[in-house]
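Hey, can you fold this one?
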Amino acid sequence: MSIREAFVAGHFYQKNPEILKTSIDKFFSDLHVEPDEHEKQILSSELWSEQRPLLILLPHAGHVYCGPVIAATLCKTSLPRRLIILAPNHTGQGNDMGFWPSGSWRTPLGDLPVDEDLGKELASLGQDFSPDIRPHLGEHDIEVLLPFIQVISPHSTILPIAVKRVPDLAQAAESLAEIVRRHHDEVGFIVSSDMNHFATEDQTRKLDALAIKAILDIDAENLGEVVRRNKISMCGIWPAMLGLLACKELGRQNSKLKAYDTSATTSSNPSRVVGYAGIKIW
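Sure. Predicted structure:
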């Protein structure tokens, strides 16, 4: 059993468990929404829906900056029991698509079990995905999302995958799609990505709108082209393209932008901002 200790607790989010739980609860309570009977019926009757999405894109900055976007996106959402989390590899360490193979990931709220069986199954489908803890040791982009998952879906398991690049996008996406086919609504995807980095507020919103449209169109190829052509510094481009193509392979056609903001809301500095988007696909 290998435990991945919390690396950015006390920096990207609160280290004290009581304060952390209170802060996350407040992100949700600030939304002032309650599920109605119609939404409860959807949760129990439909395989994939806005309330039960196959893929969710979430930002991964400090909670004070992007916590409201994460909460607004996850609000009234039923997560699949087994979550494949696709995140960028900021450190450059390890394999192209290395996943944490076993054990658990620890946050101040407790431990989330790693889905060891799911990792073995995914690796057996080809050479794209491989067990490798190195890319995860100094990363923040999965860890910061976990306390939210622990609050809204405490019985979920995770398969954390750090994506540096995808040598064969079609093959890797097909492997992910096959996992979902085998396990139906038990498996879903979370893509961890911030949007454009360090332009002005106006520039960032314009650039992010271009990338968001491609994501909402569930068009991985166009997303890559839009990001390249417009030099959009979206850090999770590979995980997003991979998740989008897997969704397309599975015939998913519905999408919605649930929340968008920039760091200027918190920093009050519109001259150098980061964009945050929350998107669902089902």
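Residues 3-31+55-272 form a domain with the Protocatechuate 4,5-dioxygenase; Chain B fold (CATH 3.40.830.10). Let me know if you want another pass with a different chain boundary.
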